[in-house]
Amino acid sequence: MTHQTLKLAGMSCAGCADSIERIIKSIPGVIRCQVNFGMEQVDVDYDPKRTDLNTIQAKVRDAGFQATPITEINLESRPEKELLTKLSIAIVISIILFIGSLPMMTGLSLSFIPHWLHDPLLQLTLATPVQFWCGQSFYKNAWKAFKNRTATMDTLVVLGTSAAYFYSLFLTFGSDFIEKQGFNSHVYYEASAIVITLILLGRFLEKRARKETAAAIKQLMGLQAKTARVIREEQTLDIPIEEVKVGDIILVRPGEKIPVDGIIIQGSSSIDESMVTGESLPVRKTVNQQVIGATINKTGSLQMQALRVGKDTVLAQIVRLVQTAQASKAPIQRLVDRVTAYFVPVVMIIAVITFLFWILRTGNLTLALITMVEVLIIACPCALGLATPTSIMVGTGQGAKQGILIKNAESLELAQGITTIVLDKTGTLTQGKPTVTDFLTREGVGDGRELSLLQLVVSVENHSEHPLGEAIVKYGRLNAIKTLEVTEFDSITGSGVQGKVGSDLVQIGTQQWLESQGIETKVLKKVAHDWEWQKKTVAWIAVNGHLEGLIAISDVLKPFSSSVVAKLKKIGLEVMMMTGDNLETAEAIASELGIRRFFAALRPQEKAEKIEYLQKKGKIVAMVGDGINDAIALAQADLGIAIGTGTDVAIAASDITLISGDLQGIVTAIELSRATMANIKENLFFAFIYNLIAIPIAAGILYPFLLNPIIAGAAMALSSLSVVTNALRLRRVHPRVGG
Ligand SMILES: Nc1ncnc2c1ncn2[C@@H]1O[C@H](COP(=O)(O)OP(=O)(O)OP(=O)(O)O)[C@@H](O)[C@H]1O
Ligand SMILES: [Cu+]
Ligand SMILES: [Mg+2]
């Protein structure tokens, strides 16, 4: 499967986005296609054996749009200059036309307005370029839609303003005829010109605002360093970031940005990773630790080796993730789409009925025409099309700024509805950087076997990815233990690890597991219990099926664990804990955090089963976890939240990732979701209520009070603008637990 992002040109409203999506999806071989109206781009997945980029581009071109591939991240937006020129000219002409028609509109004789301004021929000369040059894009788009056998908001604008324009044109040259019929012979050039101007103005402002919503991504990308100082063939050179290759040795001085992702090979420093992880405290890093491109090296001088460059860097991946999330459709949007699809044709029918009704009832052609034009203009559903996507864009962008990656709009919509949140213990509530506190052999202190047993244990744990394993290896290093060769290593997720050192079978893991292997564990039970009550995790050691010792490992809680649990309860969620660790340790930790319900000694599959059990009881469950042992449960949960410092498996199985592992992100994500959904509902309410009220008025139910078409145009431009502005308010959501 090939993935490609294309930049789109020529879209004027959400309706165009829909038709492009439909066209691309209809090409055989296209697997997935998603248009992002806000970013003006489309993501396509296709089978390269069945179709290719040229075919896709040609199809899009046939429909009247342009699509060009984006290879590197590139956000240059289409020049707005042309739109601005057209808008300025339209404004000037509209003002002149407006002044000229004031006496007629108000019925007053305003002597300061020269009479020639009211001349229909002059008005025609002024109105024509506005209609066909400034308004050109409406005609083009309406034609495009017509060819695709759909109707969009452009269709409505074209029908409405053309009706006003051609009616006036007819009057200009045939007013005698009209007057003989007893009709009023006022021309409506100014109405059509002003409506076009207002809609252009609305588009211009909307474009501006939409550009602002892409700000989060732009900000992320602007973070990238421009150059890097590399050492090649013993020479130090400054080269552009694009030319850095994997494996290059790079020098980073204090205060400089880390140019690409890499590993420190010399020096140590504290590094500000807040731009990527949202974590505000600088982190101390030294040799062999990874650094992320775009983060800031604060104090020390570093030499690093490039590991990932270009589009493989963490930053580029984050940008891509955020872009896809912003383009994705929330379930609520699908409903809106269905409604909008029927909206335009329905409006056209209402317009025709309005026309027929008034002409038959009053015989007044002007009245019938004006009401029809109003219905066409005022009912334009573009605010409806903007309501959901703009909020989603701002919401996901805002999350990214705070170190919360939301996989798609659906996850964002889901987060607000959860009732229960289940937290994993090790690595989620605790730091996941445990240290060994006690080590005991079967015979107790001084049996002379301590070091040789520790050597066996450390050798096996050296192969484990588990934080407990890492802690034991570190402990071995402190005791100057040399590791031995291990064969037949096996990791039983959720239970422990085993391997052969020479001919000895070494097993390290839970008591439960060793018992299930037929190993007698009674002798050390008392010591183990004491340790567990001190919140320590106990690993049991057996060699050749015989219990030989115990290791106690303790892990401290993350600084915000308690306050996050409290806050989650306060916003009305049921909080539970779930762990693979034993019951006593779990109980001790849970009571410290004030969590009443918890499940302990769970194997990975059982974690998922517990979640399923909660779901069966009608709860909507979010699960937060970091490890391989959490992956199934994360996928089972309604909303999976992964700790970014955890394993890749967990991140892949989740819907939301907290990049820095800061638990406050859970609260932020939920509040952001609630705010976004509320915002979408406000937007939809505004958009619908406006149409519901405006259409009947435009159709003339309040007759003899009639709207002027100009007011209709202004109202419609304002309604989309207010939707976009409302969405931008989401940028003010910054909930934080610690202040
Ligand atoms: N590499 C290992 N070395 C020693 N013991 C292990 C190892 N891996 C797992 N265990 C044992 O299995 C138990 C369960 O492990 P699991 O990975 O499922 O959960 P956990 O990391 O302790 O806790 P949580 O589920 O809260 O993240 C551990 O508490 C430990 O006793
Ligand atoms: Cu519109
Ligand atoms: Mg864990």
From TrEMBL:
Q: Which GO terms describe its molecular function?
A: ATP binding; ATP hydrolysis activity; copper ion binding; P-type divalent copper transporter activity; P-type monovalent copper transporter activity
Kindly report the protein's main subcellular placement as a broad class.
Answer: membrane
User: Known Gene3D superfamilies for this protein?
Assistant: 3.30.70.100, Calcium-transporting ATPase, cytoplasmic domain N (3.40.1110.10), Calcium-transporting ATPase, cytoplasmic transduction domain A (2.70.150.10), HAD superfamily/HAD-like (3.40.50.1000)
Q: By its UniProt entry, which Pfam families does this protein fall under? A: E1-E2_ATPase, HMA, Hydrolase
- The domain of life for this entry's organism is Bacteria
Q: What class of enzyme is it?
A: translocase
Enumerate the spans annotated as HMA domain.
Answer: 2-68
User: Any idea where this protein resides?
Assistant: Cell membrane
Q: Which UniProt keywords apply?
A: ATP-binding, Cell membrane, Copper, Copper transport, Ion transport, Magnesium, Membrane, Metal-binding, Nucleotide-binding, Phosphoprotein, Translocase, Transmembrane, Transmembrane helix, Transport
Tell me which stretches of the chain form a coiled coil. none
Its placement in the membrane is given as:
Multi-pass membrane protein
Q: Which residues cross the membrane?
A: 87-108, 120-139, 151-174, 186-205, 339-360, 366-387, 684-703, 709-728
Tell me a GO biological process for this protein: copper ion homeostasis
Q: GO CC terms for this protein?
A: plasma membrane
Question: Which SUPFAM superfamilies would you find in this protein's record?
Answer: Calcium ATPase, transduction domain A, Calcium ATPase, transmembrane domain M, HAD-like, HMA, heavy metal-associated domain
Recorded catalytic reaction(s): these are:
Cu(+)(in) + ATP + H2O = Cu(+)(out) + ADP + phosphate + H(+)
**EC number of the protein:** 7.2.2.8
Regarding protein family, the annotation reads: Belongs to the cation transport ATPase (P-type) (TC 3.A.3) family. Type IB subfamily.
Known role: May play a role in the osmotic adaptation.
Protein name (Swiss-Prot/TrEMBL):
Probable copper-transporting ATPase PacS
